[in-house]
Specification:
- This protein is mainly β.
- It has a single domain, classed as monomeric porin ompg (Porin), CATH 2.40.160.40.
- It has three helices and twelve strands, in the order αβββββββββαββαβ.
- Strands 1-2-3-4-5-6-7-8-9-10-11-12 form a twelve-stranded antiparallel β-barrel.
- The longest helix has 10 residues.
- It starts with about 25 loop residues before the first helix and ends in an 11-residue tail after the last strand.
- Keywords: Signal.
- This is DUF5777 domain-containing protein.
Length: about 300
């Protein structure tokens, strides 16, 4: 029996020059997400999305976060290299999503992935926030998601459905380092991938570490482990791993990343991650753009005349 996954996180020395940004109205939008209106809540991450995983951060009430997440083709190997400009000519997955704050602690998200045409509806609830006074040393957030694959041939509508549940436990250990662990459960009514031995359901564990580089930039490492026998006994299986460089530029959070995962959605990359090996050049460049819109009316221009 293989041992439980070790989330190994190594500190990396990185020198970077980040262009100074002038404060503008868009800054205040990101600040509305990243700073608590109360005085004791700790902001652990810059964004609701890391490289692979979601974070414990929530979209504030009446704010809307528009997401574009992109995975290019293989960087090297038989499907990559110069013939595809190292994957830039190919597309593995594109995710378009919206995250809306029903309240500061309750979000509803919708999205759609290219892979399998998977459309998802998600509810995200912040159970607990880390606080500066030590009242709570960690943050806990729950995620429940349902997905449907609308275009492939299935025997029934129920066969099209998938489910994802996750609990995220996060902590900011200091000004420069934050970390989260996230056990998860995945259920596909039709086993994915469609090969012999693929399970209908399985457990997974994921972890994220963020190292602060400057007030607007950070280095992110994401890793996830599928605990099914199918993954354990499949020699072509590689667990999803991603490394990203995150920059906040006013109203945007932009993350450039390298990952072996083809898919963006958790259901897809946890269910069918086999055959993704860094050693064979099967890693991909990608990016995440997060753009916040504030519908609280706090930035309306004064009426003229």
């Amino acid at each position: 029996m293989k041992k439980t996954t070790i989330i190994a996180l190594a500190g990396l020395m990185l020198s970077a020059t980040v262009m100074a940004q002038k404060t503008n109205p868009a800054d205040s939008l990101m600040n509305a997400m990243n700073k608590d209106t109360g005085s004791e809540r700790v902001t652990i991450f810059k964004s609701s999305r890391m490289v692979l995983l979601q974070s414990t951060e929530m979209i504030k009430k009446n704010n809307l976060n528009f997401l574009v997440i992109h995975r290019f083709g293989d960087f090297a190997g038989k499907s990559g290299g110069g013939q595809t400009y190292f994957g830039l000519d190919a597309v593995n997955d594109v995710y378009l999503g919206l995250e809306y704050g029903i309240s500061d602690n309750f979000n509803i998200d919708i999205g759609r992935s290219t892979i399998g045409g998977l459309a998802d509806l998600e509810l995200k609830y912040a159970v607990l926030h880390q606080t500066t006074n030590g009242g709570s040393p960690i943050a806990i957030t729950l995620i429940g998601e349902g997905g449907v694959r609308p275009y492939r041939t299935f025997n029934s509508f129920s066969d099209r459905l998938s489910y994802f549940g996750q609990a995220i436990f996060a902590r900011k250990f200091g000004p420069a380092f934050s970390m989260q662990l996230a056990p998860a459960y995945v259920r596909n009514n039709t086993p994915m991938p469609a090969v012999t031995g693929a399970p209908s359901s399985f457990f997974a564990l994921a972890g994220t570490a963020r190292f602060k580089i400057s007030n607007r930039a950070g280095l992110i490492i994401d890793y996830a482990k599928n605990f099914s026998d199918f993954a354990k006994n499949n020699s072509d299986w590689s667990d999803p791993l991603g490394v990203g460089f995150e920059i906040e530029t006013g109203g945007h959070v932009f993350t450039m990343n390298v990952t072996n995962a083809r898919a963006v959605n958790e259901i897809n990359y946890l269910s069918a991650g086999q055959g993704m090996a860094f050693g064979r050049g099967q890693y991909r460049l990608g990016f995440t753009i997060s753009r916040m819109f504030d519908f609280n009316g706090g930035h309306k221009k004064k009426d003229k005349e």
